[in-house]
């Protein structure tokens, strides 16, 4: 191919990439007119970009060579555009995502037709120079195949990163998310995958990196849903004892109730005058409470959705003298503990709202509080870098742990009541023996402040969230990281341990579902094998199937059980499809 044909190919390639960029930035676009409305996808935009590139090349060749054929091509195209406008009638572009809508009249249609004519001229010149015996239609078909191939690899990359692009970039939080993507996968490798898919597909180095990333993200936990939950940052989460619903508290001053299976919003509890910093659900599942920047604790009856009361401290119109940062129920549901920036922990009678006891000892803000399952131990932590363990019946301090070197943000106690976990801004997680008061181990792995910790119901697994958007899942006994996920504080495990929820960016909540350690069970109901809920939507099931097929296909997974797993996955999906068709 000579230099001229290389230049022509460059024009077309640039146009194609520009079309893809516009589609990505603008989002969903439609063409509306008297004929109705149709959507315009990424492929169409890329093809239009290719056409524009060919037209520019045609213009350059026509001008430099003074070829009258280029003028004829423009005139024929313009005439065709006018004819199309008169036949179709009024027409317009709409882009709801960016609030764009404008009409296209006869003159713009003539211009579009002229561009098409000029593009045809440019392609004909490119064919003459390339010495390839292809018709313009064959060239367009070849271009379309490349466009589709590129779109496929773009979609594949997003799947490998386990992100839903529409939800991931919600509220235009693009810059922050790009930084996270760069941390996961070298940005140059991403660009190479997008711009040269055929070459990358056969590249061992890129393939190895991509597969290891896939296994890392999808080995034990799979993000099944990301929901736009609040208008502000999500500060608190609590899962109902039945594992079917959960509540969230946010900077938008609302507490919301959600279906944990499908992420559906069920109800909004309003009443706090400022940002909600803490939430909790009673052990019997009948009452919820929230703590706020407005210095109050509020409660609602969950079944009736009725406001219950505000907890007042003695004759004060507030629950605390400053922010309420943490809340916890005793296992019998009779006592509520609250932690505040006013340096105190207060114990309340849950049914009457009366203060039972005031615990003092911290010299700065108390940020976290937790009660052991047997109701005998309360632990608190805060800005003074200490973790304090209290005898709950007497209100006396048993131990003060001072090993952390920075603010302690998070606490959790295992279900057997023997182990206390603390997470700190010093990036460390410490494991304490509540029987001896000794430090058992320090978990080192985060590179930013640890803001939340949650213990799996089996007592063997720990999840921790740090300020940089990294969640680590640990084997508590071995002190090793089992898996690294993406997400922010707060986080919580469901009672059965099959679901982990956490905060995302810009008011979102991510719902993760556990997979078996070696992938998925080879027997069971179709939804168990695919790792979804029985009532999952068709799109959710399809997405789960595609991810698993990509992960376990023998062509890319050489593990011993990959073939058996993919057979089970295929069979499960077939059963689902048959049931879906018959329903």
TrEMBL record:
Pfam families found in the cross-reference section: Beta-prop_TEP1_2nd, DnaJ, WD40
WD repeats: 227-268, 269-310, 317-358, 359-400, 401-442, 443-484, 491-512
Transmembrane segments: 35-60, 72-94, 100-123
Name the UniProt record assigns to this protein: WD-40 repeat protein
Domain J: 525-581
Species the sequence originates in: Richelia sinica FACHB-800
InterPro entries assigned: Beta-prop_TEP1_2nd, DnaJ_domain, J_dom_sf, WD40/YVTN_repeat-like_dom_sf, WD40_PAC1, WD40_repeat_CS, WD40_repeat_dom_sf, WD40_rpt
Keyword Disulfide bond carried by entry: no
Entry keyword Isomerase: no
UniProt superkingdom: Bacteria
Keyword field: Membrane, Repeat, Transmembrane, Transmembrane helix, WD repeat
